[in-house]
Amino acid sequence: MSSVKRVGIIGLGHVGAHVANSLILQGIADELVLVDVLEDKLKAQVQDLRDSLSFAPHNVAIENASTDYEALASCEVIVNAAGHVDASTNGRDGELIVTTDEVPKFAPRIIAAGFNGVWVSIANPCDVVATAIWHLTGYEPTKIIGSGTALDSARVKNVLSRETGYAQSSIDAYMLGEHGFSQFVAWSQVRLGGKPLAELAHEQPKRFGFDLDSLEQDARLGGYVTMAGKHCTEYGVANAATRIVRAVLSNEHCITACSTQLTGQYGQSGHWASLPCVVGAKGIEEIIELDLSEAEQEKFKQSCAHIQENISKISWW
């Protein structure tokens, strides 16, 4: 890895701008290369971010690259945030056509220019867009990461923290499958202080005997509570993406739920979906297969079928 940490961001709307700001305020990036088709918005975001540098841990060079996608080739990580939030009003699948239509405009150009870093894609539907980047470019699949259910897993921890009073950081829980309505909580693997939730529920039913279906629905629909109030989600997903970028740039080998190419896990292959993954400088270093129950494996299968159904709707595929 280069000693200079250079990160590119495609799309400087709500989420892309928050990713840039988080990378600056957490001291993760040394250089940012920002690209957007909306010239005035990009100029405004660059100005605003530069105005904030006096309050950052260290100076960050911020480049307005306009639509020069080739300028991203020298980055160690590229964050794809090229989305259309208005299309997501009726669900994450609402952006299916518009976001996948963006991929041919930039992905082949960046790879042709010599990019050799890691993609972190957060545009929705996340799993389909990540698969599309690979399909169009033939790029090494382990170096294409979808933010996937990193955010949704945080939402599970949020509802469990609400119910238990424990800090989210002390709860081990994963939402798996699609970053969308078919996602599901792997309840069999949830642990508090290393102890399975099912065991705690048996020992202390009044304290831990939760209505799991209700909690899962709260976590699944958390993003739409946010959408209803301000017509976008931004902080959670931006920080999920930033966390993955940090793991890559620091070669951290951290374990997080994220979307990666399946290669036979639970009988699924050829497309991206979320499982716990080890993330480091080379992207996805390892996929961790959990001991899912038969019911959870069936949910994973159904979730993957929905991803594949969405892929089949893309005309240029």
Quick gist of this model?
Helices cover 41% and strands 20% of the residues.
Note down, in words, how this protein is organized.
Strand 1, helix 1 and strand 2 form a beta-alpha-beta unit. The mean pLDDT is 95. With 317 residues, the chain is of the alpha/beta class.
* Distance between the ends: 34 Å
Strand and helix order: EHEHEEHEHEHEEEEEHHHHHEEEH
Are there runs of 5+ residues with pLDDT below 50, and where?
none
- The Rg value, from CA coordinates, equals 19 Å
Determine the strand fraction and express it as a percent band: 15-25%
The helix tally amounts to 11
| Overall residue-averaged pLDDT value | 95
| Share of residues in helices | 40-55%
The structure class reads alpha/beta
How many strands in all?
Answer: 14
Strand order of the largest sheet: 3-2-1-4-5-6
Shape: globular
Largest sheet: 6 strands, parallel
Which labels suit this protein?
three-stranded antiparallel sheet; 41% helix; 317 residues; 11 helices; 14 strands; six-stranded parallel sheet
List the helices and strands and how they pair.
Elements: E1 6-10, H1 14-25, E2 31-35, H2 39-51, E3 61-64, E4 77-80, H3 96-112, E5 118-121, H4 126-137, E6 144-146, H5 150-164, E7 171-172, E8 175-176, E9 184-185, E10 191-192, E11 195-196, H6 197-203, H7 205-208, H8 212-220, H9 222-230, H10 235-249, E12 254-263, E13 269-280, E14 283-287, H11 294-311
Parallel strand pairs: 1-2, 1-4, 2-3, 4-5, 5-6
Antiparallel strand pairs: 7-10, 8-9, 10-11, 12-13, 13-14
Helix pairs in contact: 1-10, 3-4, 5-8
